[in-house]
Amino acid sequence: MDKVAEGAFVKERFDELCWTLTAKKNYNPDRNGNSVVSHGDAFKLWCLFNFLSEDKYPLVMVPDEVEYLLKKICTAMSIELNSGELDDYFSQETQQQNGLIVWQFLDLVNSGRLLRGIEHEAISMAIEEVYQEIIGDVLKQGYLWKKGHLRRNWYERWFTLKPSDLSYYVSEERKEKKGSICLDRNSCVEILPDKDGKRCMFCVKTPSRTYEMSASDTKQRQEWTLAIQMAIRLQAEGKKSLHKDLKQKRREQREHRERKKAAKEEEMQRLKQLQEEKERKLQELELLKEAQKQ
């Protein structure tokens, strides 16, 4: 679905329609309300699955990508994924060792074996964060102080950074958008000294304007400047999505490992055949010696 030309339709609405049609037939959450995720969060996981699955039908998410996604959700909750439990799952479910279809993945999440004892609200917030990052292409978001252009006053705004722009809103609900800073290869970000009673300052420079901002602390300033630099780099490289790039790199690494493993197995098989041939010739030699003695 992500291969369809952008701007042709609202992709989110198309995703929702596809989810409604397929989930009605295939998604079987616990009817007693014991499922780990809500119906809305299951939809977001379905979208994440579609993004991270292999490019062939029927869609399958390989074990490495399952672990990657679950680790990101756990990291968003500041907990560690129980990788041992996931390894046990794949070792027990032999038919799924090559990967999961989306309904198996949702069943795994809803089983609670990997997210046991965690508040549903915390899981929901983590899924939303990962959904925004991977599906929404959000590189970073949070509150910053921004200097106005006309009145030159400082306003606290909620900023959302994507590869193409840095948008800012009145609050994190993002209902009232106040503006957007378009980023391209000619944009840059610079650290500024403290002034106007504001600390941890930096600015984003575009060919037409300079935007001054203030972060809550030096750590946040560093995270924002690095994230904006990454957005500018993606623009310079002509890439619209960080996670499409990362997904491709992980796939290439997997393919490299698989080729290396196949080459090693082939070499082991060749050495085994050589050893068997050597032993066969030794046996023939022994038999020849025995025959000569007689």
UniProtKB/TrEMBL annotation:
It holds the Pfam family PH. Residues 263-276 have a biased composition (Basic and acidic residues). InterPro entries: PH-like_dom_sf (IPR011993), PH_domain (IPR001849), PH_SWAP70 (IPR057837). GO terms for cellular component: cytoplasm; nucleus. CDD domains: PH_SWAP-70. It comes from the Eukaryota. Residues 137-233 form the PH domain. Residues 246-262 have a biased composition (Basic residues). Residues 240-276 are annotated as: Disordered. PANTHER family: DIFFERENTIALLY EXPRESSED IN FDCP 6 HOMOLOG, SWAP-70 RECOMBINASE. This is PH domain-containing protein.
